[in-house]
């Protein structure tokens, strides 16, 4: 089947206690209120790593480097009339303090506690994979 494919990059930021940061999608956005991994769409010609470094700065006010982004796993799922490919990286090193600059809220959760959160459908299969990786 043919579909328009779009690529999204996202990060599982992991703190010293092994917790992961999730952010709540704001009112007025698609899937408002769901908890997601910070990230977003690639701009034309942008590498996935450069896009993720940019998104983390824009959404959370933190600085990181592509050398701190470890490719972890991916999701591939229909989203509306398009097809989403979500590349998930693990990031343990950044500078600055996380602030919800775009999100309605952010919180740090242990991987096992992600199951209880309302997340976009594409994210659900990522939870077990993250649990196994962390
Ligand atoms: N950042 C992020 N996006 C996700 C996740 N899971 C998931 O399905 N998505 C989807 C939601 C959006 O359609 C798209 C990310 O787009 P975006 O964050 O750059 O832009 P947006 O909210 O304005 O997107 P949209 O309203 O145009 O759909 O990927 C996730 O864990 N993190």
Automatic annotation (TrEMBL):
The keyword Protease does not apply. PROSITE patterns: NUDIX (PS51462), NUDIX_BOX (PS00893). Residues 4-131 form the Nudix hydrolase domain. It catalyses: 8-oxo-dGTP + H2O = 8-oxo-dGMP + diphosphate + H(+); 8-oxo-GTP + H2O = 8-oxo-GMP + diphosphate + H(+). It is an enzyme of class 3 (hydrolase). GO terms for molecular function: 8-oxo-7,8-dihydrodeoxyguanosine triphosphate pyrophosphatase activity; 8-oxo-7,8-dihydroguanosine triphosphate pyrophosphatase activity; 8-oxo-dGDP phosphatase activity; 8-oxo-GDP phosphatase activity; metal ion binding. Its EC number is 3.6.1.55. Pfam families: NUDIX. It comes from the Bacteria. Signal peptide: none annotated. The keyword DNA repair applies. Its cofactor is Mg(2+). One of its GO terms (biological process) is DNA repair. Keywords: DNA damage, DNA repair, DNA replication, Hydrolase, Magnesium, Metal-binding, Mutator protein. Belongs to the Nudix hydrolase family. This is 8-oxo-dGTP diphosphatase. It comes from Parasphingopyxis marina.
């Amino acid at each position: 089947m043919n579909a328009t494919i779009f690529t999204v990059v996202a990060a599982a930021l992991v703190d010293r206690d092994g917790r992961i940061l999730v952010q709540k999608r704001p009112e007025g956005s698609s899937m408002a209120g769901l908890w997601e991994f910070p990230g977003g769409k690639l701009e034309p010609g942008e590498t996935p790593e450069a896009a993720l470094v940019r998104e983390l700065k824009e959404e959370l006010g933190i600085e990181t480097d592509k050398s701190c982004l470890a490719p972890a796993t991916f999701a591939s799922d229909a989203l509306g009339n398009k097809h989403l490919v979500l590349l998930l990286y693990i990031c343990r090193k950044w500078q600055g303090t996380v602030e919800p600059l775009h999100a309605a809220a952010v919180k740090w959760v242990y991987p096992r506690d992600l199951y209880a959160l309302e997340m976009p459908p594409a994210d659900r299969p990522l939870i077990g994979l993250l649990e196994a990786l962390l």
